[in-house]
Structures are given as C-alpha cells and as structure tokens.
Design goal:
Layout (H helix, E strand, L loop, with lengths): L19 H10 L17 H8 L12 H16 L5 H16 L5 H12 L7 H13 L4 H12 L8 H13 L3 H13 L8 H11 L3 H13 L6 H13 L3 H13 L5 H13 L3 H13 L6 H13 L3 H14 L5 H13 L3 H15 L5 H13 L3 H13 L6 H13 L3 H9 L1 H4 L5 H13 L3 H13 L6 H13 L3 H13 L6 H13 L3 H13 L6 H13 L3 H13 L6 H12 L4 H15 L4 H13 L3 H13 L6 H13 L3 H14 L4 H13 L3 H13 L6 H13 L3 H13 L6 H13 L2 H13 L4 H14 L8 H11 L4 H12 L3 H13 L6 H13 L3 H13 L6 H4 L3
Length: 903
C-alpha cells in the first residue's frame, strides 16, 4: 500500500494515515474526475485487494505533493461534499433558535420577539411538509428538543397556518423520545383547556398525544368520549392509538381497536406492521411469520416495513440465523422491497457487536443487488468503525458515500471530523471546523471532544482553547475526560489565565470538574507564584465541600511560606488536619520557620502550638515537631521552652526529643549549651549509640572536629560502637583539614569494629589522592610504623598510590574495577574518580571504562560527561570533545565552568 506522511502548514506533528493514499490518487485523477477522490472500482470481498484496486500506477518521474496542498485538497473536496446537503435555510432557522437559547432565558419576552422577527425575515413558506422537515432536521442535530419546541410555538402563532395532526404527532414524538413526558402531559392538559383556539381535530390530537406519552388508558378514555359525541378518529390517529396499545402491552384493547380499523376498511401496510409488532412484543414469532406468509399468499406486494418489524425483533432476541433465513425468503419472493430490512439487519448486526458481518453483508448486497444504504445506515457503520479505530475501512465508506453522491447529514460530518483527528490530520479537521458555517456543520459533543483532545495532544493548546470558546458559544461545555485533558494542558503550558477563565465558565454552568483538575490548577498557580489565586480556587472547593488533596495543601502551604505569609500557611495546616490529612514533620518545620521570620514570632509560634495541642491528645510527637521546627528556624531558646513545657505537662521526653533538642543547639552553634544538655541527658538515661552519633556528626558539621573526636573516644571507652556515619563524617573533615594521619587511624579503628571501608570513605580517599601525594606518603609511613601488612590495607594503599601518581596504573580497566571492589563497593562517584584518573593519561581507557559502567547499569551524570569532555580537550582531541559535549547537552546537562574555559 502506498502511503505518504501528512504535515500541516503550521508544522504540526504528522502521522501515517490511510486517507493519504487517496491524496496521491487525487493528484493524478482530478483532471478526469474532479468530483471524486477515487475512481469507481468493482467491490471485492477481500478488503486488501479492494484497496489495491483503488491505487493508481503513478507516472514516472513522480514528485511528492507538498503537505500544504495535501491538506488543501482534502479540505476542498470534503467541503464540496458537505455542501451537497443544501440545508442552508434549515441551518439558518436553528441558528436563530439556538442564539436565543444561548443568550437569554426562554421566557425573556424581548429575546423571544427578536427571534420571532429574525424568523419572519426569512419569509418562510409555511406548510405541513415544511414544518415536518424542520422538526425532523432537529432530530439529526442531536435531538434539539428546545429549538424544535420554539419553532413549533412560533409556527402556531403565524397567521394563516394551523398545526395539523401530523405536526402535532411529530412534536409529541420528539418530546417522547427525549423522555420529557411531564412536559408532554402539561402540554396536553393546557391544550385541553383551550379547545376553542384550535382548528385541528381536537379529540384526535388529544388521543394521539396521550398515546405517544405512554398513557393509552387516557387516550382510550378520550376516544370513548368522542364516540359518545358521535365522532370518530381519522385513520392516522387510529394507527397512532393502535401502536401505543402494543407499546404498552394492552393487547385486549389492541384487538378491539384493530377490529374497529378493519370494520371501517382502514387496514393498510401500516396496520399490518403494527399487528406483526404485537406478535413480536408477545414473543409470538412463529405467529408473526405465519401472518406475514398469509399476506404473501394474497399475491400483492408488501411494504418493506412490515417485514422489517419481524427481522428487527428476531435480531433483538439474538435469533440472527432465523432472521437471515427470513430475509432471504422474502427477498426471493420478489413481492417485498428489501431496502428497509437490509438496513435494519445491518444496524442490528452492528449493535450486537458483529461489525464485520455487517460490512460483509453490505459488500455482498452492493455487489450482487446494487443495494446502497441510506445515510442513516452508513452512519451506524461509520460510527462503529470510528469507535474501533478501523480508520482505513472508515475511509473507504466515506469515499463510497462521496462517490455515490449520498448527502451527508450532521452525524456523517461529525464522524468525518473525528476521523481526521484520529488519522493524525488534525489540521484538516480544524480547517473543516473553521469552515463549518459554509455547510451548516454543527459539531456535536463527540466532535468537540476529539478536536480539543487531539489539539491538546498535538501541542496546539491555544487552538484547542479557541475551539472550546466556540463550543461554549454553541451551548456545549466539555466535561469529564476532555475537560481534564484541556485543564492539564493549560496548567502544563503555564496558560493559567485561560485556565482561570475555564474554571469560571465551569462554575457559571454549575459544572463541577473533578477535584483532580482543580488540584492540578491550584498546584500550577502555586508554582507560578500566584498562590493567592490558588487559595481562592481552594476556597471555592471548600465552599462546596470538595476536599482538596493532601499534595495540593502542601503546595499551597509552601507557596505561602515563600511569600512570607506564615499566618495563612498555619491556617492551612490546621485546615488540612480537619479534612483528614496528616502533615509531615517537614511541613511542620517549613510552617514554623516561616512563622519565626514574621513579626512577633513567639506569639505566632505558641499560638500554633496551642491550636495543635487543643486538636490532639497531648503527646510527645507534637512537641517534637515544634522542637525540630524551632531548631531549624534558629530559635533554640524556643525549642528549649517547648521541651520544658513538655516536661511540665507530665510528658517525659523521649530519646527522639533529646536528640532534636541536642541538634537544635548544635545547628545554631550553641556548643556549650549542647554540651551541658548532653550532660543533663546522661543524668536521666544511659547514653547509647544514637546520642553519640548525633553529637559527633553534629559537631563535625559545625567544624568542631576535635570535640567530636573526644566524644568518639568516650564512646569507644564506654563500650559503645559508633555508627558508620560518625567515621565517615570525621574522616571527611580530617581529610579536608589535611589531617591525614588522624583519618588513617580512624580507618584502622573502623576496621577493628569489624566493619569495612564504605564507598563514601573510599571515594574521599581517592579524591584526596588525586589532589595531593601527601595522603599516600602518610599512609605508607603509618603502615610501616604499625607494621600493618594485611592484604586489604595493602590493596587500598596501592589504590591511593595509583590515584596520587606514585604507583603505576594498570592498562586493564577491568583490573582497576576489581581492585577497587575488593576494597569497597563501587558507585557512580567512584567511577567518576576513576574516569578522572584515566583521563589524565589514557582517554581511550576512559572511554572503555565509560562503556563498562553503562553496561553494568550505572547512569552517567553531569560530572561523568564533564570529565570526558574536559579530558578530550586537554589532550587536544577537540572533535571528540565536542561530540561528547553534544551528547551531554542532549541529556540535559551543562558543562562546568572549569571545562568551559577550555572551549
């Protein structure tokens, strides 16, 4: 199959589409047949062969058509086809009626007069058939009930025109189909009170109305009143009543009315169809067949609708084989036109999920009998193919309709619009949508959803929003998934003013989007530093009892923290707890820090603490949150006050309370207070590993290494084994201060506890080895003095020597990896150190190591790439350096300043 790629002039992302096959044909066949995309060809049951038959042989040399021309040809051709409807007058009528509906209330007198005037200026030639055409046209527009009622009312008030039984029946059916029974009954009650105003047969209208409204008993009562007055129903009303008795399963009354029809000689094909329907309603399918065969023995041609009733009933009860035999039998008789039965057969197959069977049936009947479905049956197939994403077959049917000059209705046009969206040609769909006024297209909800969703997925957010605004003007507002997709796109692209408009319109229409959509919007506003707007939306959610998500509360609170509005952040903290969300320690900490930066911080701090204590049973956790928060806010005195309050209220501080208070002092470099507090703790509890770890690590972070070493010795003397993190942070600080002898002694002490050198410690040693040879010299001297000849220690020393340049590096990358792995576990930082070492002399080995690292599942980071780029530049291999830099940029990384100086 020959395909091409479609692109719009606006450079939208394109996809392969089956319809593009037709574009090529159009280029070379339009001169001979300008009215169609594809030449007629015999239909073949094999779908692939059928498509191949439609593809012409392209002349040589062949030049691919331009994307803009592709789109223009498709738009022009489909526009010409859509214009064949020639329903511009009906479109004008409904445009006037819809405009009145959108901009005002139906009881607005001035607006009604405006619509009346606009309709009068059309100079319509009113007749029964014209009014029926208008009302039936409304059904094709998605059962536009309100517009139909307005037109019915306006027509009834025009001089010289009086509604007929047919127009009354039409409006009754419209109301019934829309399940507006109460409105229909109100209409009939009002009609009954104003008998003197009506020229049409009064009782006939009432009987029809109540029959259609599903009130056959009332209809029969009206019929009895007529007969008492010496009046009788006309044939049309008789059959409406008879049909309603079948629909409501009033079979005794049905037989009475049927006899009345027969006695008066009013029996027609319509009567026969209702009789067959009565059998089917009672599941008497055999009797229905006998009745139909009895009609055939009379030797006269039957109306196709009579057979259609039984075929439809059999299909609805899943008796497709029996229905198929019946269709074939009556077709062979030659006495029944089968178009209606074929149409119902296709529709019922599709509704039963047998779409392939329906398509095969259509192809067979079209090929053998020349059967061409009406637009309604085509629509059933097209919509089903659309739902199943069978775009190529859908394309074939659209072209088939176009070639057959079957005028599309509103359903067809909307399905075509959706097809172009699904086929990756949203530019064509959008252009047809923009031209909708030319051929009277009124997009339905499905078309709007497809268009908006596809534009959002295509990145055309502004156009999607424009379509949305147009849809609102036409009375449609997207809901559910479409609203969420558009809202997500607007938030993602930072188009928050448009999103705000969307939310306002939703609220004006009493539509409540999902909380998820609101949460995304609020979070986007917070990220854009428009936290006040987010708070207003949150207030609307709260007003209608919608619970904001926990993550959204976090975003709002952090947003107000950044704006130094700790009071609102604290209020939201309380509120989120009332809504059932549990704040984290980090959230408490952020709010407390913000409160402590405000005016009168102590008041704000203790006010929030009191509110928290009043909400919960007093427990150590609440106190701990505030001790932690005050410590991070550089308010250790506030933290101590909370600590003492806790004790006064009879709650014994836990180990975590002691640790948080100790950290509060150390973070704020209140070392003497920290040491005194540590001494106080030792009076209350036995000091174990966690407390030692806290004070040792904390002291190192404020560069009090010597005091930290004293506590490490005390810890060891008391028989407590310090945590690994104590050794790591101490070794890091000692190396930073070039106190390598102490660092090496700590490594020896670590190994005495039965532990091994960690990746962190190993990487620190390699890093300092790259910077100076002093570490290696110190290592060698100490090991000689200590007479340490352990294999692990020797191997680590060799690595330090290799990285410092004092020991020759092996030429095998694998050997280097294995040597390091024997000393400590490798991580990405280790690989970066190794890359730096290799890049000093052997870039090829560095590249080999990079590949091995990736093979082993390590993800290169910014430093990995920067080391390689820097190394290649240093060695004068600029082409390779730029190639690695380009790959680095593609990964989203930037060069360090040190490397940028080499470029």
């Amino acid at each position: 199959m020959l395909t091409t790629v479609a692109k719009s002039s606006s450079n939208r992302r394109s996809k392969n589409s089956p319809i593009l096959i037709l574009i090529h044909y159009y280029h070379y066949s339009s001169s001979s047949s300008s009215s169609s995309f594809i030449a007629s060809s015999s239909t073949n049951n094999n779908n692939n062969n059928n498509n191949n038959n439609k593809i012409p042989v392209l002349p040589s040399p062949w030049t691919a058509p331009t994307p803009t021309r592709d789109s223009d040809l498709l738009v022009s051709s489909f526009k010409d086809w859509f214009n064949r409807r020639n329903n511009s007058l009906l479109d004008q009528i409904f445009l006037i009626l819809n405009t009145q509906q959108l901009h005002n209330d139906s009881d607005d007198l001035s607006s009604r007069r405006s619509a009346d005037l606009a309709l009068s200026q059309l100079n319509l030639r009113l007749s029964e058939s014209f009014v029926l055409d208008v009302l039936n046209y409304g059904k094709g527009r998605g059962n536009d009930v309100l517009s139909a009622l307005k037109f019915f009312d306006w027509v009834g008030r025009q001089p010289g025109f009086h509604h007929t039984r047919a127009t009354f029946h039409a409006i009754f059916k419209i109301l019934s189909k829309a399940q507006l029974m109460s409105l229909l009954l109100d209409f009939l009650d009002d009609y009954m009170k104003q008998r003197y105003l009506h020229k049409v047969r009064f009782y006939d209208t009432l009987v029809m109305g109540y029959a259609v409204a599903g009130k056959p008993q009332v209809a029969l009562k009206m019929f009895g009143r007529m007969r008492f007055q010496g009046l009788d129903l006309d044939p049309f009303a008789y059959h409406v009543l008879l049909n309603s008795l079948v629909e409501e399963s009033c079979f005794d009354a049905f037989h009475v009315i049927l006899n009345q029809i027969r006695l008066r000689g009013l029996q027609t094909d319509f009567t026969n169809a209702i009789v067959v329907r009565s059998f089917c309603k009672q599941k008497l399918f055999h009797e229905a067949e006998l009745y139909l065969r009895g009609l055939l023995t009379q030797g006269r041609q039957l109306h196709g609708h009579v057979v259609t009733v039984l075929v439809d009933a059999l299909c609805k009860t899943n008796q497709f084989q029996k229905a198929a035999k019946l269709v074939q039998e009556f077709r062979d008789s030659g006495l029944v036109p089968m178009e209606d039965a074929y149409g119902v057969w296709i529709r019922d197959l599709v509704q039963a999920g047998q779409l392939d069977g329906a398509l095969d049936f259509l192809r067979t009947k079209k090929s053998l009998e020349g059967y061409v479905p009406d637009v309604f049956r085509y629509n059933v197939l097209i919509c089903s193919l659309l739902r199943e994403n069978r775009l190529e077959e859908l394309c074939d049917l659209l072209m088939e309709m176009k070639e057959g000059q079957i005028s599309p209705d509103m359903v067809t046009m909307n399905a075509a619009l959706c097809f172009f969206c699904k086929a990756g040609m949203v530019d064509v769909a959008l252009e047809l949508y923009n031209l909708r006024s030319e051929f009277g297209l009124s997009p339905n909800s499905m078309a709007y959803n497809y268009l908006i969703n596809t534009l959002c997925g295509d990145g055309s957010i502004d156009e999607a929003y424009r379509v949305l605004k147009n849809s609102i003007e036409q009375g449609y507002f997207p809901r559910g998934r479409t609203f969420s997709i558009l809202a997500d796109a607007l938030c993602r692209e930072g188009k928050l003013d448009k999103m705000k408009e969307l939310v306002i319109v939703a609220l004006e229409r009493n539509f409540m989007p999902t909380t998820f959509s609101y949460d995304k919007f609020i979070s986007a506003l917070c990220r854009a530093r428009r936290v006040e707007d987010g708070y207003l939306i949150h207030g609307e959610l709260d007003r209608i009892n919608k619970v904001t998500k926990k993550a959204t509360y976090f975003n709002l609170i952090h947003g107000f923290n950044k704006s130094n509005r700790g009071d609102i952040a604290a209020r939201l903290l309380i509120e989120m707890q009332a809504k059932g969300h549990t704040p984290t320690r980090a959230l408490y900490r952020a709010v407390i820090c913000c409160l402590c930066d405000m005016e009168y911080p102590e008041n704000q701090f203790f006010k929030l603490l009191e509110m928290q204590l009043s909400r919960h049973e007093p427990n150590f956790q609440i106190y701990n949150f505030f001790i932690d928060g005050a410590g991070h806010a550089k308010k250790p005195d506030l933290a101590r006050e909370v600590f003492e309050m806790m004790r006064r209220n009879g709650i014994e501080p836990t180990l975590s309370s002691d640790i948080l208070m100790l950290q509060s002092y150390i973070k704020n470099e209140r070392i003497s207070d920290a040491l005194n507090f540590f001494s106080d703790i030792s009076q209350r509890r036995k000091i174990k590993g966690k407390l030692y770890n806290t004070i040792i690590v904390g002291l190192c972070k404020v560069n009090k290494v010597d005091i930290a070493l004293e506590f490490l010795r005390e810890c060891r003397n008391n028989g407590v084994v310090p945590g690994t993190d104590c050794y790591e942070v101490l070794i890091q600080m000692l190396c930073s201060n070039k106190r390598y002898d102490m660092a090496i002694n700590l490594i020896n002490d670590l190994e005495k506890t039965g532990r091994h050198v960690t990746s962190f410690i190993g990487n620190i040693l390699l890093l300092h080895s790259l910077k100076t040879q002093e570490l290696y010299d110190t290592w060698v001297n100490l090991k000689e003095v200590q007479n340490d000849k352990s294999s692990d220690s020797s191997l680590l020393g060799l690595l330090i020597g290799a990285f410092s340049g004092r020991v020759r590096v092996t030429q095998r990358v694998k050997d280097l990896e294995e040597a390091i792995e024997k000393c400590f576990p490798l991580n990405i930082y280790t690989y970066n150190m190794l890359l730096r070492r290799l890049s000093m002399s052997e870039m090829d080995l560095a590249c080999e190591l990079f590949n091995r690292m990736c093979q082993r599942g390590y993800e290169p980071n910014r430093w990995t790439y920067d080391i390689l780029v820097h190394g290649f530049f240093k060695h004068g291999r600029k082409v390779e350096a730029r190639r690695w830099a380009e790959e680095m940029f593609q990964k989203g990384f930037d060069l360090t300043e040190h490397t940028q100086l080499l470029i």
